[in-house]
Amino acid sequence: MHRRLAVIGHQLLKKPIYSSLTNTISHTHLNYLNPRTNGSKLFRAFIFTSTHQRRVADPNDPSTLMKEDGVAVCSQMWIENFKEPEKTVTQLAHYLRRFELWVLAYQKVCADETGAYVPRSAVQRSALEDLLALRNAVLDGRFKWGARLEFFIKSPKDKTEYESLSKRKIRAILTTTQPPAFQDRIVQEVLFMILEPIYESRFSQKSFAFRPGRTAHTVLRVIRRSFAGYLWYIKGDVSTILDGMKAGMIIGALMRDVRDKMVVDLVKAALVTPVITSQVEDKKKKVKRKYQKKKVLADDEPKPDPYWLDSFFGFAPEEAEKVPSWGHCGILSPLLANICLDELDRWMEGKIKEYYRPSKSDVLWNSPEGEVEQGNTSWPEFVPTSGPDKTRKIDYVRFGGHILIGVRGPRADAATLRKQLIEFCDKTYMLKLDNESLPIEHITKGIMFLDHVLCRRVVYPTLRYTATGGKIISEKGVGTLLSVTASLKQCIKQFRKLSFLKGDRDPDPQPCFRMFHATQAHTNAQMNKFLSTMVEWYRYADNRKKIVNFCSYIIRGSLAKLYAAKYKLRSRAKVYKIGARNLSRPLKEKKGQSPEFQNLLRMGLAESIDGLQYTRMSLVPETDYTPLPTGWRPDHEKALLEYIRLHDPKTVEEQRSCLKEQGLISPQDYISMLVWNYKRNAIGVDQHSTTLSGGNNMRKELLLGSNEGNNDLKTGDQEDSQETLHAAQSIG
User: Fold this and answer.
1) Could you tell me which residue ranges the Domain X domain spans (predicted)?
2) Is the dihedral of CA 441, 444, 445, 448 positive or negative?
């Protein structure tokens, strides 16, 4: 049997198709009488050839271009730009060539398109080849924005065969409004990943919209921290800039910091290329409502937003409703809007320094430098009463296209600043503003911003401070307190827009019939999530308990009316009687105490019902009064700046010089001293007296901070280094 296998193997090796195998074992000869050695040689030959062929890389495989992780490439871009924020960028084409960024952009767009994240290892080779063709087209200038029929890469959901479409369908595609092409969104993502770190390191600290880590909550905390003591406020709306600007003005703002021709041309083409929209829309005839079947989503179709999230989006304040969308720029539009409005931020920063006039009699702001972070850091919203001669200063924040300016001084100064602002916007943005669009209001009237009202009230707190000698002194003080309260009027308006209530003075909850076909458990869970987001939205409002309790009352009344209509209970009182105050008991059974339901719930065959949250004011959490730290920055910027500082050679030298000046020793020297003390105790006092000179030398080296003698500890008698190693291990 073994001899037959050896003969067959010998005949196979003689064929030309296995020439690589014969070359591999040409130095050996098969022995027909020793089948065991022949089998091992054949096995080794096959293993060698298979692994040898597997190691040969396919030159046409696009995955060979991915030498690094895309996130690592993005991180490096952020570090480089934050290290040199004032440097004009001229070379960005090499980032456009990085295939890792294109794969990362493909993953992000696929996640938005399909609702599921695609790992890099799961991206198919055909998709990588199409992605490479798209990258090459962008680099060669063959890419066109707004393509409708010819694509370099298509969405995984798009199964349309465009070659076999009829003329009517092709005409409809070319003449009606269509969503942005999949390949356009990939190019937008790549440009966004390249441009965002460049401008995030340059943007003003006064802008907070369309930026990572800077939300509406950040604006409210900044107002509470820095706007205390201001009497006059200028509230402006320049959101018409977000509707669109001339392409030349946008490109001019972009080229102040970016001078790469390829990137600028791509952005310019996205702005200039016309977007095809439907001119005439057919008026929909009123059709009687019919029973609609439950929609079943496809496997690759993303789930729509849940009801609670859709309702919460309806609570967006006026300042956050408008998101710019310019041409084919897509997600680049908010970034480009911030680039254009950054000139306004810089102009206002100059005005802040120009206007600052300190007064020595002022309690808080009396420094000639005019630092923004002056004031009471532990209680920033409180400003003690000063004399008639007060420090004059202004401050400014911008959230999207809405600005808020606080003026500490006479109204004439606010009027002068408004006039200069109108002239600046007319000259820079060709935007015609008037006094009505920039009203000047006193703090006593209440300033509405982000659905919160800014006002002040006079308080008489007891101030305690430590005097000379450590004596604690308590005295009655007087001052003004900046109050940031949620607007109940705006809350009622938003609920009315979402059809949760009707009426103004006496709001009456209305049933939310969108949840009519959902179970009681699912409906309660949806409303609990909605209430949790409302609690978080009003986190920094002084009247957080009151406003959240009102929201809970409206939602609870709306659900009670819904359940009364659904289960034919006629009134809310009967619903509360059966389902309890928080609607946690099942309404199908009488009083919710049926033994059948309890048994099913115990066995896990029935769905448990969570009661509504925050049904009482005592259950609502307190207002968050945590003051904003001095020099606040988002967490990602803190990490970047700390990373850059620790990798700076100057930081290491400063730490070493500080150790020497303060007489401290390094951890390595400290371990060496511990080893030396261990040896001293182990040898004994009598034996150690002979090595006193060596010990003194070592002590002198440790005090001077020298690195010599730290690795190999030597005494006057030249002791063995193995003993030193054993001592160090014992200490460890």
Assistant:
1) 484-591
2) positive
Strands 508-509 and 462-466 turn out to be unpaired
Q: Please give the structure tokens belonging to residue 31.
A: 């022995």
Whether 711 has a pLDDT exceeding 90, the answer reads: no
Q: Is the dihedral of CA 55, 57, 63, 64 positive or negative?
A: positive
Those residues with Cβ within 8 angstroms of residue 680's Cβ, 6 or more apart along the chain or in another chain: 688, 695
* Neighbouring residues of 62: CB distance < 8 A, sequence distance ≥ 6: 99, 125, 128, 129, 131, 132
pLDDT per residue as tens digits for the range 148-163: 888 999 998 888 888 8
List all residues 6 or more positions away from 238 whose beta carbon is below 8 Å from its beta carbon: 341, 344, 401, 402, 403, 425, 429, 431, 433
pLDDT in tens, 240-278: 888 888 899 999 999 999 999 999 999 999 999 998 887
Q: How far apart, in whole angstroms, are the C-alpha atoms of residue 198 and residue 623?
A: 37
Name every residue whose Cβ is closer than 8 Å to that of residue 516 and which is 6 or more positions away in sequence.
562, 565, 566
pTM: 0.78
Q: Are 178 and 276 in contact (CB under 8 A)?
A: yes
Report CA dihedral (396, 229, 440, 537) to the nearest 10 degrees: 60
- Which DSSP state fits 274? P
Structure tokens at 167: 């003329």
- Residue 564 corresponds to which amino acid? A
Structure tokens at 556: 């609870």
From CA 74, how far away is CA 70, in angstroms rounded?
Answer: 6
Q: What angle do CA 619, 620, 624 make, to 5 degrees?
A: 140
Given a contact cutoff of 8 angstroms between Cβ atoms, the answer to whether 391 and 359 are in contact is yes
Residue 546 has pLDDT above 90, yes or no: yes
Q: Cβ contacts of residue 336 below 8 Å, gap of 6+?
A: 250, 253, 254, 267, 324, 326, 329
Query: For the chain, how long is the longest CA-to-CA vector?
Result: 116
- The CA-CA-CA angle for residues 40, 18, 49, to 5°, reads 55
d(CA 227, CA 430): 30
Q: Which of 58, 126, 72, 70 is nearest to 103 (CA)?
A: 70
Cα separation, 510 vs 673, in Å, equals: 78
Contact yes or no for 547/491 (Cβ under 8 A): yes
Mean pLDDT of the residues in the chain: 79
Secondary structure (3-state) at 384: strand
Report the DSSP beta bridge partners of residue 472.
466
Residue 45 has what pLDDT?
A: 45
Model confidence at 698: pLDDT above 50:
no
What are the helix (H) ranges across 301-368? Answer: 307-313, 332-355
Judge whether 273 and 147 are in contact, CB under 8 Å: no
DSSP 176: S
